[in-house]
Automatic annotation (TrEMBL):
This is Urease accessory protein UreE. Belongs to the UreE family. The lineage of its organism: Bacteria, Pseudomonadati, Pseudomonadota, Gammaproteobacteria, Moraxellales. It is found in: Cytoplasm. The gene is ureE. The keyword Magnesium does not apply. It comes from Acinetobacter gandensis.
Length: 160
């Protein structure tokens, strides 16, 4: 079994690389086992530096590269009659600090009947669906490939 121990940073694009599909729960872990679509088992013992995002790459010490994709999983999908209603639902879900995936026409969150009832109470439609889950990382999370100044550095830069 190959053990992947490195996270590859930067704009890695590899042709004909093996792909492993992982749920959001697994992509948050630094140690896990998984099975590739070809049936081969792999292990991961990665540095604890954050969540593996859809399209991330990991590697073995020998240089074998694997792309990580978000696996379709059971989620709650929120649809609204207007973008303002969808925005309102995002606000209320955000106040509960749940991982939330935003799209222009829908919101996705992990199954929770209490949250679903709250959203239905706001007049929106909620139903279960199978969909890859890539929730927002949050305003204070480290964003890869973002070369802009951080807000603190930007404030310092403006005032010096």
């Amino acid at each position: 079994m190959k053990i992947y121990t490195e996270r590859l940073e930067g704009n890695v694009v590899q042709e004909n690389v093996a792909v492993v599909e992982l749920t959001f729960d697994t992509r948050q872990k630094s140690r896990f086992r998984a099975t590739l679509s070809n049936g081969h088992d792999i292990g991961a013992d990665l540095p604890r530096t954050g969540i593996l995002r859809h399209g991330s790459y990991i590697a073995t010490q020998e240089g074998d590269v694997l792309r990580v994709d978000a696996k379709a999983e059971k989620l709650m999908k929120v649809e609204a009659p207007s973008s303002f209603d969808l925005l309102k639902a995002a606000y209320h879900l955000g106040n509960r600090h749940v991982p939330l995936m935003l799209t222009p026409t829908a919101l996705y969150f992990e199954p929770d009947h209490v949250l679903a009832e709250m959203i239905i109470g706001l007049g929106l439609t909620v139903y279960e669906t199978m969909h890859p889950f890539e929730p927002e990382s949050g305003a204070y999370a480290q964003h890869q490939h973002d070369h802009r100044l951080s807000p603190i550095k930007a404030l310092h830069h403006v005032h010096t």
